């Protein structure tokens, strides 16, 4: 006897008037203009199916939106969004866009389709990846977005057509596969699970507003990960929490992170933190340290005015595009350093705008080192800042080096050094002896 098994998938259409068959007051029923630099009309001669499509005339370089609001959401369910676009105009393009909001009106996740393109005279099918409704979602904005193609001039317009939109609720999502943080980070610069929905877990090592870092216990290279929640604040997480998180792996401008979370579970609290990786200025920050909790033993400030609250220290990093000095960022704490001073710094390593950076969590993570401490720590000598060229330094024994403000060695020697050999400015004098006498000419 032959037994046939059928898999029945229940799908619920969430959109109303997705085919633009009903119009009143100059707009398709159930749709709202969120911006106003375009016109939309019922079109009966160019349709994908049914009697009407929506004809858009774009008259702006700014992004324009026609939106339908969905409230009967089910967190944890899968959804997929699709639309048909006829785009014969090289001056504009369209894509579908979705934004989830919580009960406070804060955006907590977003998804989108590809853009339309103009190399075909046929209707194009645009569809998002299957996505999962996040925890705390109260409202979903289903959008048609219109974009200028950077060819618009005063008086120009782009004409585009949209038809047969659909937002399907596919029912409860299957449990995402579990991958450890080290598996998610993988062996190279990009995650092998990029754009995949996964489950992972770790110990919270740093919290910055609603976003946080987690790390496998007991710590190590390629075992840290940034968790991006945007405006989502619940559940509140704290340093030392052991958490399980579910979301989408994303490479955000080179930084591996988990975003569009649909579940965060706190297993327990006050867990011991992973041991920080202890690093000296002779060590180099690389992709291995992304997301990882570290301790920099003796960081010398070599530039205190990078802008955006950042300052530069004498630890090097190497990325695919740069080989330069590490930045100290202010995601958690704003700190005013002194050029030439030495600090010990706890924090997590992140990668933004092409630079590796350390993110101290509180001001307590940054400790000023006295000259004696910095000399003993890692055997790095003290620093003297020469503000004027009218100094000579009597240093009869031991070796010395003079560096520029950017950390480049300008001159090295032994015995007395004449500061007036250099132009007026700020320089660093590094000594391997602690006995020093400064004389004025």
Main attributes of the structure:
Jelly Rolls; 2% helix; five-stranded antiparallel β-sheet; OB fold (Dihydrolipoamide Acetyltransferase, E2P); disordered C terminus; seven-stranded antiparallel β-sheet; 441 residues; 4 domains
Corresponding CATH architecture of the largest domain: Sandwich
The helical percent reads under 10%
End-to-end Cα distance: 108 Å
Q: If you consult CATH, what is the topology of the largest domain? A: Jelly Rolls
> Which superfamily, in CATH terms, is the homologous superfamily of the largest domain?
Galactose-binding domain-like
> How many domains comprise the coordinates?
4
What average pLDDT do the residues reach? 85
CATH class of the largest domain: Mainly Beta
Which residues sit in consecutive blocks of at least 5 with pLDDT less than 50?
A: 1-8, 379-392, 433-441
Shape: elongated
Please give the number of β-strands.
Answer: 34
Task: Tell me the Rg in angstroms.
Answer: 29 Å
Q: Which strand-content bin applies to the residues?
A: over 45%
- Count of separate DSSP helical elements: 2
Task: Provide the structure class.
Answer: mainly beta
Topology:
Blueprint: E1 12-13, E2 23-24, E3 27-28, E4 32-33, E5 38-43, E6 53-58, E7 64-70, E8 77-86, E9 92-101, E10 107-112, E11 124-127, E12 131-132, E13 139-148, E14 158-172, H1 181-185, E15 197-208, E16 211-215, E17 224-227, E18 242-252, E19 255-268, E20 277-279, E21 284-285, E22 293-307, E23 310-318, E24 323-328, E25 342-352, E26 355-359, E27 366-369, H2 371-376, E28 383-385, E29 391-394, E30 399-403, E31 409-414, E32 417-418, E33 428-431, E34 437-440
């Amino acid at each position: 006897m032959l037994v046939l098994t059928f898999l029945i998938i229940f799908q619920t259409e969430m959109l109303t008037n997705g085919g633009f068959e009903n119009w009143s007051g100059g707009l398709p029923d159930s749709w709202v203009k969120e911006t106003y630099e375009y016109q939309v009309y019922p079109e009966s001669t160019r349709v994908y199916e049914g009697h009407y499509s929506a004809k858009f005339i774009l008259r702006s370089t700014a992004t324009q939106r026609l939106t339908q609001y969905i409230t009967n959401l089910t967190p944890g369910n899968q959804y997929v969004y699709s639309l048909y676009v006829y785009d014969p105009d090289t001056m504009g393009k369209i894509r579908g866009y979705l934004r989830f909001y919580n009960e406070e009106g804060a955006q907590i996740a977003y998804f989108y389709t590809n853009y339309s393109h103009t190399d075909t005279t046929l209707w194009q099918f645009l569809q998002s990846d299957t996505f999962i409704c996040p925890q705390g979602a109260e409202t979903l904005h289903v959008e048609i977005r219109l974009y200028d193609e950077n060819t618009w001039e005063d008086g120009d317009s782009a004409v585009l057509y949209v038809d047969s939109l659909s937002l399907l609720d596919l029912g409860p999502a299957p449990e995402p596969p579990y991958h450890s943080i080290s598996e998610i980070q993988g062996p190279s610069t990009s995650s092998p699970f990029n754009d995949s929905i996964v489950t992972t877990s770790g110990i919270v090592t740093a919290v910055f507003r609603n976003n946080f870092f987690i790390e496998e216990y007991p710590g190590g290279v390629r075992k840290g990960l940034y968790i991006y929640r945007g405006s989502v604040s619940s559940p509140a997480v704290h340093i030392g929490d052991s958490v399980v998180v579910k979301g989408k792996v994303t490479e955000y401008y080179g930084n591996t992170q988990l975003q569009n979370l649909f579940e965060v579970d706190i297993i327990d609290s006050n867990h011991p933190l992973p041991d920080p990786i202890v690093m000296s200025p002779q060590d180099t920050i690389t992709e291995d340290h992304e997301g990882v909790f570290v301790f920099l033993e003796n960081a010398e400030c070599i530039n205190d005015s990078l802008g955006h609250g950042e300052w530069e220290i004498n630890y090097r990093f190497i990325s695919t595009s740069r080989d330069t000095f590490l930045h100290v960022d202010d995601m958690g704490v704003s700190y005013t350093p002194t050029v030439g001073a030495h600090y010990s710094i706890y924090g997590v390593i992140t990668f933004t705008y092409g630079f590796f950076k350390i993110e101290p969590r509180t001001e307590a993570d940054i400790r000023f080192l006295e000259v004696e401490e910095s000399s003993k720590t890692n055997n790095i000598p003290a620093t003297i800042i020469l503000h004027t060229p009218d100094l000579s330094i009597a240093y009869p024994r031991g070796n010395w080096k003079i560096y520029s403000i950017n950390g480049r060695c300008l001159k090295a020697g032994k015995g007395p050094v004449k500061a007036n050999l250099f132009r007026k400015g700020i320089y660093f004098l590094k000594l391997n002896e602690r006995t020093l006498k400064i004389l004025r000419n």
